[in-house]
């Protein structure tokens, strides 16, 4: 991992997140680090029972129950239950997808901006990336020529923008007509009800070749016990199951049982509570910084668990080291703009899935640093 003195320009976002793991003022990674609710604490107290259930039941039954509870929670009722692969994390699913794509194409059209491990993984297998600007994606401009896949993050990280049902249908139709794979990363879907329309109903009816990556790890404070899901169309034409088998046999049945229980709790009211909690954190950040000269908030309608703060004339390269000295960790947005880092050099991303006390302390330190610049 990187040394603290390493320049921001040479570090990827995950390396910066690693630096933050031992800090109480970590608002860097988008993982769920808030406190357990009372209902979730009761699930933790059930862990011995869940372990016994996982040991006794067939893995196939546990997978089916966990997949159904999680995906139905977000309105994904038409997902193909026979084509869901459980992975340790969404990044593992991404690696499997990348290795599958490179058997057929050498170029991917990728949403810009987005979290930099996506372009890093795709480039790591030799794929050439063509940036697709969010505005162009949402306005309906044609997808670039010469690509074998269009990759979209929705809701996007860090902007929170959601691909509408109408736009997804049009994009799927265009991909079908051009025989291009449509890949979606929906890891932040759970935070935004605007993303709870049934994506799989649209994808399956379109006839396009598609792949979707889902993630349980952003929602619940389970100490990173999580499952990433990789789903694909029957006609995808990529060696996804074979490459999956090259990398792993399966995930822990205990984690599957845990995911099912947390999804059940969320369906019983916990998801609405989470939405209110994240909204409260966003208000905290905005109210604490709103009166600072030059500071604005780039994504006013975002509901995901991160918030972008525009620093005005201030540069991340000047602000981040001072925050680090105060043990405050936020992410510079330069690396999100993987095709043009200069566009992110005046903004920071703050993670909101934190106890309000920790989030408030980090934002007060950020305010102090910004006031000095």
TrEMBL record:
Cofactor dependency: pyridoxal 5'-phosphate
Pfam family, one: Aminotran_1_2
SUPFAM superfamilies reported for this sequence: PLP-dependent transferases
Domain Aminotransferase class I/classII large, first and last residues per copy: 93-353
Record's keyword terms, sorted: Aminotransferase, Pyridoxal phosphate, Transferase
Superkingdom as given in the UniProt entry: Bacteria
GO molecular function: kynurenine-oxoglutarate transaminase activity; pyridoxal phosphate binding
GO CC terms of this entry: cytoplasm
PANTHER family with a match to the protein in the record: FI04487P (PTHR43807)
Protein name as it appears in the record: Enduracididine biosynthesis enzyme MppP
Organism annotation: Microbispora hainanensis
Organism ancestry: Bacteria, Bacillati, Actinomycetota, Actinomycetes, Streptosporangiales
């Amino acid at each position: 991992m990187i040394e603290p003195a390493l320049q921001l320009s040479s570090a990827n976002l995950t390396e910066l997140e690693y630096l933050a793991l031992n800090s109480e003022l970590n608002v860097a990674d988008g993982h769920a680090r808030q406190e357990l609710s009372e209902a979730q604490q009761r699930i933790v107290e059930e862990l011995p029972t869940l372990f016994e259930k996982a040991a006794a039941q067939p893995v196939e039954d546990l997978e089916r129950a966990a997949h159904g509870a999680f995906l139905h929670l977000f309105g994904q009722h038409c997902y193909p239950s026979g084509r869901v692969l459980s992975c340790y994390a969404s990044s593992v699913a991404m690696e499997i997808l990348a290795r599958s794509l490179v058997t057929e194409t050498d170029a991917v059209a990728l949403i810009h901006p987005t979290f930099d491990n996506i372009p890093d993984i795709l480039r790591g297998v030799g794929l050439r990336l063509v940036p697709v600007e969010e505005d162009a994606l949402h306005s309906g401009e044609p997808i670039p020529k010469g690509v074998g896949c269009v990759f979209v993050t929705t809701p996007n990280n860090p902007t929170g923008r959601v691909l509408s049902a109408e736009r997804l249908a049009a994009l799927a139709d265009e991909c079908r007509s051009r025989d291009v794979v449509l890949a979606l990363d929906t890891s932040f879907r759970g935070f935004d009800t605007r993303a709870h329309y049934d994506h799989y109903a649209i994808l399956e009816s379109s006839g396009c070749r598609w792949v979707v990556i889902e993630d349980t790890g952003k929602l619940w404070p389970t100490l990173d016990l999580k499952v990433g899901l990789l789903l694909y169309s029957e006609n995808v034409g990529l060696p996804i199951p074979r490459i999956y088998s090259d990398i792993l046999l399966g995930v822990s049945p205990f984690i599957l049982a845990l995911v099912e229980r947390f999804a059940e709790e969320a369906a019983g009211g916990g998801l609405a509570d989470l939405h209110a909690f994240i909204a409260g954190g966003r208000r905290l950040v905005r109210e604490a910084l709103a009166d600072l000269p030059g500071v604005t908030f780039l994504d006013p309608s975002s509901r995901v668990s991160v918030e972008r703060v525009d620093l005005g004339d201030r540069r991340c390269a000047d602000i981040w080291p001072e925050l680090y000295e105060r043990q405050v960790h936020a992410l510079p947005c330069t690396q999100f703009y993987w095709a043009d880092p200069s566009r992110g050099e005046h903004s920071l991303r703050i993670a909101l899935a934190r106890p309000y006390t920790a989030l408030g302390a980090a934002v007060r330190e950020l305010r102090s640093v910004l006031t000095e610049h």
